[in-house]
User: What shape does this take?
Amino acid sequence: MEGQNETEFVKKPLWTRDFTTITLGSIVSMLGGSMAGFAVSLFVLDYTGSPAYYALYIFLHTLPQIAAPLLAGPLMDKFSRRRTIYMLDFCSAAIYLAVAFLVLTGHFSFVILAVMTLTVGTIDSVYRVAFESFFPMLISEGNYSKAYSVSSTLSELTLVMIPIATFLYKAFGITPLLFANSACFLVAALFEVRISDVEKLDNSSEKYSAKKYLLDTKEGFRYLFSEKGLLCVAMYFLFSSFGGGAGSVITLPWFRESFADGEYVYMSVWGFSVLGRALGGMLHYKWKLPAEKKFAIALTVYITIDVLEGAYLYTPLNVMRLACFLIGILGVTSYTIRISATQAYVPNELRGRFNGAFAMLDTSGALLGEAAAGAALNFLPMRPTLSVFMGIVALSAVVFIYGGRTHIRRIYNTQA
Assistant: This one.
């Protein structure tokens, strides 16, 4: 009887109507986002002519993502996550359309860029909490790892738009890409409107007061701190984002300073990371990792990624490409283990608040990394700065992941 139940559990289909719909919508929005996002980075570097202003641009995009996820978390557990997702995509479509017209008519300025960056950063952070809290509700039982491997693979495959974006930006400027991104967000929202209303919302007439909201906000952190395994994972990813923030400030400017047409060299190197993540995602879709080894695999992956990212800029280009390929495969492994395990572990009624608290810590790390790296670059070369930051991240994996192994194994070593 037990074997029969397990067979029925595995046979549930992943590709339901709703899962297919949200996946298609995600592909469209990610295509636009990856295309316009990289082009905007190049535009900021060209428009300001300063790595410091580029660091400020990244900082402004990250800044609202500290408080916004935390503030959004309780609302995502109380109100419709589905409606939030498509409304934010409609808003993003309108913003990029407006900015495209401002650039086209010559009314663009750094102040407008700053306001747009802060607004888009806020929208992105709220969308992330809503999406991550809603997406598991569309996954059939037993298919978490497979679903997140699909999501990760598709997000990486959309990065093929980066070289296309670079070519289009150099040929036609930023305006057509902003219009295209607006259209992509609009199409994504139209897909998301079609998703079934699977949420079981509290329809009681009780007013959602400010006091109740504050209590719900605290509940997200209370739950996180009560779960030692989740807390250790969150703390490591705070440091991981700290290193990632430093890398985002350092890497593209280093390639542009070190090579002629450095953005193309950058893409030729990090394109192998995309290839690695796509291949890794397909492997995770086909084969499940042995449940009892997931923690050990995750710990090894975390430390290996940190070492590779701290050292690869010192190597020849072909070695960089190999390192990035490995980072890609290992990165999707890290993501699939962590996201499938934690989202399956956290109760649905607390998922928004947990994701909000986790995202706040994650973004705080990125912001600190961006600010600290930007300051360090005033008196340190780029490559040693990145090495120091990634060394700190590797140490944090030992402290929090290995140190919290008893509690994390209980979360990670499951067949999600």
